Amino acid sequence: MTIWSFFTRASRAFHDYPHASKLLVLCTVSGGLVAYSESQSDIVSPPSVDINQSEPRKKRVVVLGTGWAGTSFLKDLDASMYDVQVVSPLNYFAFTPLLPSVTCGTVEARSIVEPVRNIIKKRKGEIQFWEAECIKLDAKNKQVICRSNINNNLVGNGEFHLEYDYLVMAVGAQVNTFNTPGVLENCYFLKEVEDAQKIRRGVIDCFEKAILPGLTEEERRTNLHFVIVGGGPTGVEFAAELHDYFQEDLVNLYPSVKDLVKITLIQSGDHILNMFDERISSFAEQKFTRDGIDVQTGCRVVSVSDKEISMKMKSKGEVFSIPHGLVVWSTGVGTRPVVKDFMEQIGQGKRRILATDEWLRVKGCEDVYAIGDCATIDQRKIMEDIASIFEAADVDKSGTLTIKEFKDVMDDIIIRYPQVELYLKNQHLGDVTDLFKDSEGNYRPEVDIEQFKLALSHVDSQTKNLPATAQVAAQQGTYLSRCFNRRNECKNNPEGPRRFRGRGHHQFLPFQYKHFGQFAPLGGEQAAAELPGDWVSMGHSTQWLWYSVYASKQVSWRTRVLVVSDWTRRFIFGRDSSGI
Amino acid sequence: MTIWSFFTRASRAFHDYPHASKLLVLCTVSGGLVAYSESQSDIVSPPSVDINQSEPRKKRVVVLGTGWAGTSFLKDLDASMYDVQVVSPLNYFAFTPLLPSVTCGTVEARSIVEPVRNIIKKRKGEIQFWEAECIKLDAKNKQVICRSNINNNLVGNGEFHLEYDYLVMAVGAQVNTFNTPGVLENCYFLKEVEDAQKIRRGVIDCFEKAILPGLTEEERRTNLHFVIVGGGPTGVEFAAELHDYFQEDLVNLYPSVKDLVKITLIQSGDHILNMFDERISSFAEQKFTRDGIDVQTGCRVVSVSDKEISMKMKSKGEVFSIPHGLVVWSTGVGTRPVVKDFMEQIGQGKRRILATDEWLRVKGCEDVYAIGDCATIDQRKIMEDIASIFEAADVDKSGTLTIKEFKDVMDDIIIRYPQVELYLKNQHLGDVTDLFKDSEGNYRPEVDIEQFKLALSHVDSQTKNLPATAQVAAQQGTYLSRCFNRRNECKNNPEGPRRFRGRGHHQFLPFQYKHFGQFAPLGGEQAAAELPGDWVSMGHSTQWLWYSVYASKQVSWRTRVLVVSDWTRRFIFGRDSSGI
Lengths: 580, 580
Prior knowledge:
The structure is a homodimer of 580-residue chains. Chain A has 580 residues and is of the alpha/beta class. Chain A folds into three domains: 57-176 and 334-379 and 465-514, FAD/NAD(P)-binding domain (3-Layer(bba) Sandwich); 188-331 and 517-573, FAD/NAD(P)-binding domain; 382-462, Recoverin, domain 1 (Orthogonal Bundle). Chain A is built from 18 helices and 29 strands. In chain A, the strands form ten sheets. In chain A, strands 7-4-3-11-23 form a five-stranded parallel β-sheet. A five-stranded parallel β-sheet of chain A has the order 13-20-14-15-16. In chain A, α2 packs parallel to α15 and α6 (193-210) packs antiparallel against α7 (217-223). Chain A is globular and about 90 Å long. Chains A and B meet through α1, β1, β6, α4 and β10 of A and α1, β1, β6, α4 and β10 of B.
């Protein structure tokens, strides 16, 4: 009865002192001890609904979206400085890197989500949250129009608008089908938690259907043919998960069809994981070949029907079709309609993706910020400003720059144009002054504007778009919240680099992305990782590194405990194959 | 790193010796130790799909359904004696008594389900499972027609038929709306796991919608009005769970609408929980009143629209309507269409529910058995057989029975007509011979047929239908599997009572239900229980009893661990309010 009496006492303590610090001692399977003390002393009771407040004293910040970018922004924002209102069609944050694990039940869907209200109630200051979808951004009138996406018969008009002083767009992206016919109708996706749940049920459906009496062997084979389109980290991880799920669990439950299962991975490029180091890429390809996963590289999907998927072999130009049971489409992201419409309003209509400057401010629209997958940073080219830079650096107005004059502005240049640093590194130049060397490697005492242009002419080729990853989105959210928190402070004491085309300094440092590496789990308790400093790590130990990193990155202690216990459960009992 | 190295070793051991016994030591939160050794040595690899086998040697048993009845039957059946084929639209068994806990996330849906294939692969002998719905029972040709209910584009005809030697119907019942208009369209139910998941999402939807800007207070109130129809154990438990969910978790996340929430429980009878002892009934009513749950007894729902629920106050005959946000309908069960159709075929068309005899054999149909909620036992009345009994007992054919003659057949009578025992108990008669007393309390030496009839004339009033509970279904499944296992044995040595209307003995003892008591959790860590021997227990300690009984009754160690860890999680972190 120890366990029950513990519960009774714990329960009583919990109810008697709801706001006291809770000390939870969780005994993990290894016998290890995790002591966790969560102080709730900073909980501020959220506000009453008072949307018609006249003349708010605080500036209103409207945040759209609660994915990686939006949540990171909210987690670090000092909400006591602003009237913060959050709108998102989902009332939770999802730890999306674990979505492939959810597809096969290695981790449960609920273990990777945390209610937004839980996250915001622990923040300093008042934050209001509305579960609704932003259906229109009205840049001219500085307002957003939102509509509740709850599709039942509840009363009340679910449409409302919110005016903003600052708008933070973190609405994410949508699946990109590249207009391939039949994809939306016949494919599964892997962007949302619900997608992963659908795949999980879909996989079991394929097995249950394939095993029924009366099917031909060909029909069974078709139903058990799983096709994954896209050889990026998500597609590869899903293929690996599916293979493990089958090999470790389903093979025992559906032994009669075990020889009929096939997994095909289709990649348009020449290699899977081609954003990774090529050692990782070929390690993954070799492992998949050993596992019997059919990797079709250099193939472009031209259409998907309910029964077949047609593709074109790039090398031969030949189009062929294969029957499928289930297709998962995982090939990059596209712009949401509401963002497209907004881009038209602000003169970005011709662009493919919303552009911000280096401070994450949407170009052509004041007081609107965009972070995460919904936008990209349009890095200013150094050549556009080259004359202004030269003029600003040429203090004595001699028409030439000395090394000293150049050095004096170089720090500001490197901050304002990060491509310069990348260029130096890729050209193996130790110092910025190396740019002053002539073609024979001798330092020039001075350079004129033409020589200066020539020295920097190739720098802009190093400008790179950031990938649409959780890591980038999270860093942007955190960066932006820091700017919002220091808005008053930095007004008087700007921290940014000097303005070459104007006077004074930029208020804030521009956003700078720091890459902490990337994982690609490959199944069978093996993973590959690209770590900072061009380190590459592959194999079982990398998988353990993956476990520890992903456990530590969870948004709350609750999800951390749940994810670790899901992994433990999977080790002990395997994955659940119930069709729910 | 201890935890990781444990994992590595455990994982390796698991993969190297997949069939070895696994010893799992699970360290629970209390520090208590549960040692669990699961022997897998009896796993027999399931058969290949071979449906067209000609002339099977073993008799084929087709089992329809994998609920409490079907699963209990399968768990104890010696499948090596038969060719066993199971058909169910769900590929899992669900521990339905925990469904109310799933509606509010106290327990996760996946924690209460166990895949049927997991259950059957551990059985002795071969069992085949098909995920399909039986759409037609063809009693004449001894076959069932089934159709896959997987609604996607997988290839192959999902329809097939199975011939049977013995059919075990365990298809359960469906929701009974009593033909009340609008119920099917506008109410939530609590029969399946998916129902519980829908309610969970629905409750959160109500809160998210109610809190949106621009709604009137009246609209918020309407959306937060939760109505439960049916004051049985399920409805009462759901009301209690919902109240706890709100008080313990949601009130912190939606503080601005906390005064607008209302829970109404509608019961047509005069009291809720009226199948329980009246002390429990009034304890529950008092607790609910204290909790602010509005209990409307003596009310019959006449219709449900998307916005309102209309009911009739029985006492006054007055019809009135109240607006609602969410209605859960939980009022007993009805017969499924496939069973109705079958009843027509076998001449039971006029009955409301399928009738079996005391051996669970469907009346009017050979070799078909029905267990669980889909059927009821039509207990043979003693008065129908009274002449035969008298004749059989009157060994010396004297036309009168002596006490000795009566005593000789009494054991068989009590087994064949269990209402006799109930009658003796209710009449406070110590012994069957008390029936021989005359009106003045004196023993009569002999009775004639008329006196015999008179003595037993009130016995049949004690005949009772068994309730549609998991407990009854499980006992019937186990009972029937025992009969199947002992079929050959009992053919030669029948174990049943003597036949009064024929010769010899019945092959098996008739089914006899043993009531182990019943729980009604009432929220706030309190429960009520009716235990054997007319014991009644209420309060916090009963809730702990409930926890231990429900944990011990789980179908597998996997679900047991999951359910207990869900309870623990709820104690520590509360319930999740993510809308997934």
